[in-house]
């Protein structure tokens, strides 16, 4: 597998301008640091928000995603929220929503792919996406978002599909479950001991993304990184209103979603 190389500064600036022009007024710039959950980038009064802390108490650090990297914020009732709901529908605006969400995912992958890799110390060897119970496999447009995130990958990277498991229909309030998703037997040897990337569209509470992470860790993956296009915010959730009000007016594609500041060297 070839090692990743940072794009030239002029090309980074060009891509950042394109992303800013297309979706800068739609999505929110991800925040890191004080008052932000170090796992999911939601509001938190401690290092972790209550939801992520609960996941760790239940499953332990070793079975959950090693890193969660939302690329932006989407806010319920704002255009970003409409985009994240609309991109997977069949309304008249859905094609435009899908175009914009794909553009954001592809631009962020170009600008920050190496930042994500740097957090683990090695590139991912395999990639999958969080599938849907109602639209499994590539029928769901989240698979198209996965294509955008891995478009710059080495051809040797394994791209595979997971399957829904027996607990996929269990109430979402039960949180992540080990058998919400299943890793097909033919892929277990290819993920064992490897860094696996999981692509999702929206992180609300991490139920599905962390369920996939648990399934991968149980199948022997050594590291799991979750990349989701947007971290969902809802003004009526505790602490979300203050975070929403603090977001810059325009999305900054050059601000690193891993560090919340400069990209790691």
* Secondary structure: helix percent: 25-40%
3D shape:
globular
Give me the oligomer status.
single chain
Gap from first CA to last CA: 21 Å
Low-confidence stretches: none
Could you tell me the number of beta strands? 8
Based on secondary structure, the structural category is alpha/beta
What is the succession of H and E elements?
HHEEHHEHEEEHEHEH
Fill in the keyword field for this structure:
about 260 residues; alpha/beta; 6-stranded parallel sheet; two-stranded antiparallel sheet; about 15% strand
Describe the overall structure.
The structure is a single chain. The protein is 35% helix and 14% strand. The chain has 265 residues and is α/β, with parallel strands linked by helices. Strands 1, 2, 3, 4, 7 and 8 form a six-stranded parallel beta sheet that branches. Strands 5-6 form a two-stranded antiparallel ribbon. α5 links the parallel β3 (126-129) and β4 (158-159). It is globular and about 45 Å long. The two termini are 21 Å apart. The model has no long low-confidence stretch (mean pLDDT 92).
Which SSEs are present, and which pair or pack?
Layout: H1 9-23, H2 50-59, E1 67-70, E2 73-75, H3 79-86, H4 94-120, E3 126-129, H5 142-149, E4 158-159, E5 163-164, E6 181-182, H6 185-191, E7 195-203, H7 207-218, E8 223-233, H8 240-246
Parallel strand pairs: 1-8, 2-8, 3-4, 3-7, 7-8
Antiparallel strand pairs: 5-6
Q: What's the short story on this structure?
A:
The chain is of the alpha/beta class and 265 residues long. Helix content is 35%, strand content 14%.
